[in-house]
Amino acid sequence: MIELTDKDLKQLEKKGISKEQMLSHINTFKEGIPFVKLENAAVIGKGILKFSDAEEKELIAFYDSKLKDLDILKFVPASGAASRMFKALFSFLGAYSPSEETLEAYLTRTNDKDIKKFSEGLERFPFYQKVMDRIAVKSEAQGEKVFNFISELLGENALNYGFFPKGLLPFHKYEDSAATPFEEHLKEGALYAGANGKANLHFTISEQHEEMFGEEFKASGPKVSADTGITYNVDYSFQKPSTDTLAVDMDNKPFRNEDGSVLFRPGGHGALIQNLNEQDADVIFIKNIDNVAVMKDAKAVANSKKVLAGVLLKEQEKAFEYAALLDKEDIGDAQIEEIRSFLVTSLNVRFSDDFDSKSNSKKISVLKDKVNRPIRICGMVKNEGEPGGGPFWVTNGKGEVSLQIIESAQIDMDDQQQADLLKNSTHFNPVDLVCAVRNYKGEKYDLLKFVDEKQGFITGKTKDGKELKALELPGLWNGAMAFWNTIFVEVPLVTFNPVKSVVDLLKDSHQA
C-alpha cells in the first residue's frame, strides 16, 4: 500500500489529480501495458481508400457545396519546443572549437552529417540574413563562420531560438519576408477551413509562450487577412496539469524529487484529447504545427484536405440517416442487414461472430453503439522510411478487430510475425485528420468515452542520476481515438512536410 503524506495530497489537489488516478497509474506500472496485436497492415483496398482524379474532384465539390452551412475548426497541436529541432546544433557548440581545428577536420573526425548539411545550406535558411546582420565580426574561415552563426542563433543573450516554440520560428523565406508555421497555418486555413469570410483556428500551446503567440498573431494576422479576405478567430489552450502522469522508481513506488515531492511528468500528446474535447464544430481538421508547406504547394495541400472532408461528410450523412432510423426501433431484418453492411463496408466496423444469432432488439442495440461514435478520416502517405504511426488492423483485449494508427513502440518486435507485419506496411500516418464529433441530433460526443486506456506507453528515464519509469497517455491519434469510427485515405506526399531537425528546412518543400 502506498502511503501518501499531507504534502502529497496537497500536491495532487493543486494539479487536479485524484488519489484514485495516481493509484491507477501505479497499477499500470505494476501490470505493464500489453503490446498491441496486429492482424494485418492496412493497405490499398483493404483498409486504405485511394481515389481517382475524377473521384477526388467530386469529393472536393461536395465539401465546397456544404461549406457555407458548416462550423469548421482547424485544431493545431503547437506546444512543441524548438530545442529538439536544434539538438545537433547544441551538440556542435559543445564539441567544436574553431581555434583548434577546421570545420573540415571536425566533419572528417565526427562524420556529423547534420552539421555538414547545415554548413553547406547556410544561406538557404530563412533566418540567414537576420543572423548575419547581428554578427559584428564576419569570418572568412567556414568553421568560425558556422560556429558564430549557431552561437548567435541559439545563444541565450542572442536570438535564443532554442527557447522558442517551434511554431514561431522563421520556416519559409519569401521575397519580402520570412513566415512562421503559425502564419502558414493561417494562410492554409483560408483555403479549406474558411467559410463565410471567417476561419476558426485553435492552437494548443505551452502557457509560457501565450504572449509570444499573441504578438505573432498581431503581427501576421492583419497581413494574412488582407491577402486572403478571411477574418480569423484564433484561440489557445494549454495541456492541463491534471493530465500529467506519475513517475515511479524501479520498485513501482512514486519517484520523489530531492525536495521530497512526487515527480509528475507531462502525459504526451495524448493529453490533448482533453483540449479537443472542449472544442465543438461540425468538422475539425487536425494537423501538427511543424507540418506546413510553402505557398506554391498550398493548393495541392488544401485539395487533399477537402477530399478527406468530402469523405467525412458523405459517410456521416449516411451514418446520421441510419442512427435516426435505429432510434425508431421499428425496423426489420432487411434494414438491420443494410445498416450492418454500411458499417462494415464504409466505416470499417467489425462484428463479433455471434451477431447473426442475436435477437433483433439485441442487434439494434449493437448497431446503435457502433454507429453513434465520432468519425475520423485519416490521411495516409506512402511509407518512404519516415518515422511515424502506421495503419493496421488490430485485435484488442476483448477480441474486437478495428483499424488503428499504431506506433512501433506498441509492437512486440521480439515476435517475428508482428515485426514482419510492421516491416511490410506500405503507409504511415503524418497526423492528418478530419474529424466529426457530433451525433445526428447535433449533440457533441464526450470524446473521453472513446479512449483505450490500454494503449499508453511506459518508458525508462533518469532524473538526478536515478532511474525511473514514466507513463505516456494513449496518443491523441492512437489510443485516444481507438473507439472512433475510422477511415484511412491515401494522400499525396506533398501534404507531409514535418520539420523534426533544422536541416529539414533545406528540403525543397520548405524552399519558397
Automatic annotation (TrEMBL):
Pfam families: DUF4301 (PF14134). Residues 5-511 form the DUF4301 domain. It comes from the Bacteria. InterPro entries: DUF4301 (IPR025393), Nucleotide-diphossugar_trans (IPR029044). This is DUF4301 domain-containing protein. It comes from Maribacter ulvicola. The lineage of its organism: Bacteria, Pseudomonadati, Bacteroidota, Flavobacteriia, Flavobacteriales.
